[in-house]
Amino acid sequence: MSYVRISEEEFREATPDCFEEFPNPGGELVFFYPVGSFLVKIYSSIIRGESRGVGKDAIRVVLYSNQTEKGTLSRKIYRVPGWGERTIKVAREFYRLAKKADEVSCEVCGAATIPRRSKFGYFLGCSKYPKCRGTTSLKILR
Questions:
Q1: Could you report the per-residue pLDDT of 109-138, keeping only the tens digit for each?
Q2: Is 98 in the same domain as 112?
Q3: Do 38 and 89 share a domain, yes or no?
């Protein structure tokens, strides 16, 4: 696979209009979209108008929780042809997971739930983990 250089303009065009630019003192172009008690962020790998070199080049989509104040899910998208479509697909997936987590409380203790990922797929886990180990399968919620 061949890596492609992405300009700031190309990245802005590929980012959905609902996302806003996030002020980042490190200089990397970052966009965000609030979803209830979550925040979906897209890290561009573009710093001051230039995309990073090969090896440090992945676009990252991260889902942050206000409950834990850290990233709960993260996915890398490599800068190869089709990067824009894959970035949007992952951002939409994280959006849907965040919406579902905001609708469901922990069945064990009643606390908020957070989307998590295991080798079996996505699930909702209690935000009080490890004190509470309550989980809900997303297959049950469909």
A1: 999 999 999 888 899 999 999 999 999 988
A2: no
A3: yes
